[in-house]
Amino acid sequence: MLLLRPPGVYRPQSDTLLLADALRRSGVPAGARVLELGTGTGAVAMAAARGGCEVVAVDVSARAVLTARVNALVQGLPVRVLRGDLFAPVAGEVFDVIVANPPYVAGDADPASVRGRSRAWEAGPGGRMLLDRICAAAPEHLTPSGTLLVVHSALNGVAATLVSLRRAGMRASVVTRRREPLGPVMRRRAAELRARGLLRPGQRHEDLVVVRADRVREGGHDRRAA
Q: Which CATH homologous superfamily contains domain 14-213?
């Protein structure tokens, strides 16, 4: 699939493909409401739309929003693309599936203050500033049987993601793991990542993981409402 990708918009890479594949294998039925956070070019959102889902895509970048809208229009796919910070544009709405490929590269910059293309990767000191927000807020935007699929690097702490989601009342597990060479941003920050204890000396790879989390229902009741 050929996609418009102007400078400053995240290029679909291995993590994008892993997330799209996990969505396909999750068996989402036609007609399901799907939300993509951090849509970039709209690649994953359009994959969901091709499956007959009702899709909303969100990105904080105005350039990414325009790009995703144009790509969906060119592909003839009905994707509603909104600009805003994570769940803010869909306040009060719920979805059957939420997919997310948030920025996850550790660094000193505050993601909220970043502009330009580095928005696609800057994620704070532990690389979890956006990831933790998604884990905490996702249950409020899922139907009682809803599912979250989120991709990130294992350097950010897989256990931390699972614990965060389980504390939010979800059943969570890793459904995909793939080893990849470090990307250019990670390579440039290798010394810094080693100093933070996120990268071992000589390590030139990272594991990308897709975590699936499902809303937990106990005794036929929504645990969130208990």
A: Vaccinia Virus protein VP39 (3.40.50.150)
